[in-house]
Amino acid sequence: MGRKKTSGLVKRGEFWHIDKVIKGRRVCQSTGTSNLEEAESYLMHLVEEHRQATVYGVRPTRIFREAATKHLMESQKSSLKDDALHLKILDAYIGDVSLDLVHMGTLQGFIQARQKEGVKNRTINYALQTVRHILNLAATEWRDEYGLTWLVTAPKIKLLPQKDAREIYPLSWDEQDRLFKELPEHLLRMALFKVNTGCREQEVCGLRWEWEVRLPEHNASVFVIPAHAVKNRIRRVVVLNSEARSVIEELRGQHPEYVFTYNGNRVLTMNNSAWQKARKRAGLVNKARVHDLKHTFGHRLRAANVSFEDREDLLGHKSSRMTTHYSSANLGNLIAAAERVCGIDSRKSHATIL
Questions:
Q1: Cα dihedral sign for 204, 208, 211, 215?
Q2: Do 243 and 197 meet the contact criterion of CB atoms below 8 Å apart?
Q3: Which of 95, 265, 277, 297 has the most CB atoms around its CB within 10 Å?
Q4: E strand intervals along 93-189
Q5: Considering just the CA atoms, what is the radius of gyration of the chain in Å?
């Protein structure tokens, strides 16, 4: 006759599961094993962990992977997809590391490996910022069933110096013409819209028809992007000049939800293989990043003597004025300012300043 199993363990399918009241709290979870002795050992560890937490305030041990998963499940960041990509790479280096042992020392393997791969410090810093954000949440906001934060304090995560950062590169009109001739039609429209509005890539990719606001008094329209879809979390008004309006009118009615699509589906990124091949054919291999189109718009506004304040509004920069509501007169002025980068005259002024 086999020995009696420990109370609180139930066999469900292949694995043993815990169903037990520990210190007044019911715990129901899988042990992850089909071996009874291993399951009993896990249960004993769990009981002791609960006792340490309730009696002595000792936090249960959690690994970084648990915290990363919680962040991805709960965060509302517009750049969450980028966080997921960085966390996937980080997992190989610190995924199994106890959360209280994640610091600059344990991150050195990740940093050195990425630098060896030729990754820029700016990209590595994005991953470090994500780690820092998660650790700060664990120390200040996340609380477990005992009312304890996941961490006592968050370690200081220092960012790397960005001496290897790529310089801003606004395109000349000739470079723009060469690149745009090589782009497939759907990317050409997106690029033309981006270089005439200064929108970020994800603002273009996620642009929705429901965000369009008609301005009959100006015979025009704008797009009002909600805060959750903007990087700086401030609602953005996208002003359209005649070039941007022509793109919108070409696409009107093609999709019920998204402005920019390909084969009936939303375009998730502009920086794809088609973009890379196009800039290679145009002789712009180390230039013409997607983000350079935003810099190009800003550079041309400055060349056209558009005021600093109007440039901030047109580019969607976070300013001290925090302007998210515009009068009809203000919108008219911004439309006129954006129009100054269109046509022959703007090409001449741009070339002179360059």
A1: positive
A2: no
A3: 297
A4: none
A5: 27
